[in-house]
Amino acid sequence: MMGRPDQHGTAYARTRIGYYDVIVVLFCTFLLISNVSAVKLIELDVLGVDRWRIVTDGGAFLFPLTYVLGDILAEVYGFRAARRAIVLGFCVSVLASLTFFVVQQAPAAADWPNQGAFEAILGFVPRIVLASICGYAVGQLLNAYVLVRIKERTHEGSLWARLIGSTLVGEFFDTLVFCTIAFYGVINGGTFLNYVITGYIYKCAVEIVLLPLTYAVIGWFKRHEPTYAAPVSTTG
């Protein structure tokens, strides 16, 4: 059905009601920023003790929030809507990688000295791209699937159980797949295990710490989303 004309008699399509599109935009934005940030490996010494080193990557700062947004999508809008957002995130990640590759291969201007720096940060590295896409797709789909399946049993109660349960499953497979494809063989042995375990524990811990905020945000969306039919109860 054609949208109604405005006050000047000009026709426009209707925008969708609700907040789904806003969450999807944030979801894809956080994903893209995290993928670029993940190029840098970070190493920290806990309390200055060398054997307590923490090895992670730059994506750890923002990437956990994509799972928070993924939880909101699955909890409020269901698995199909969450899957649609995940597919869109997948597509923009591929587009970003292809764009970086084309720009990398394009001849640099004679007086532009930063080709090496561009390639080091944004250069198309098939292994990293494959790791990011595979880890993201597997982790996010499992996160949404587990959350929705738990909700089918608990309905509006026990929100904490599905938020934590879906995170533990989704983040585990995301971290394992990404770290293995991206860095196994580049870093080995104890350093590799440190990287995997630290990344997994950190991402899960961030989501658990943010649980009260996630509760509040989900409750807000349920109250203000015009199409949400279930009674609001996020206190189980």
Strand content: under 5%
CATH architecture annotation name: Orthogonal Bundle
Radius of gyration: 21 Å
Could you say what the CATH topology is called? Arp2/3 complex 21 kDa subunit ARPC3
Termini separation: 41 Å
SSE string, helices as H and strands as E: HEEHHHHHHH
The share of residues in helices is 55-70%
Shape: flat
Content-based structural category: mainly alpha
The quaternary state of the protein chains shown equals single chain
Protein traits:
mainly alpha; 66% helix; two-stranded antiparallel ribbon; single chain; 8 helices; 236 residues; 4% strand; Arp2/3 complex 21 kDa subunit ARPC3
Could you characterize the architecture of this molecule?
This protein has about 240 residues and is mainly alpha-helical. About 65% of the residues lie in helices and about 5% in strands. It has helices at about 20-35, 65-75, 80-105, 115-120, 125-155, 160-185, 190-210, 210-225, and strands at about 40-45, 55. A two-stranded antiparallel sheet has the order 1-2. The longest helix is centred in the middle third of the chain and has 29 residues, at about 125-155. The relative contact order is 0.13.
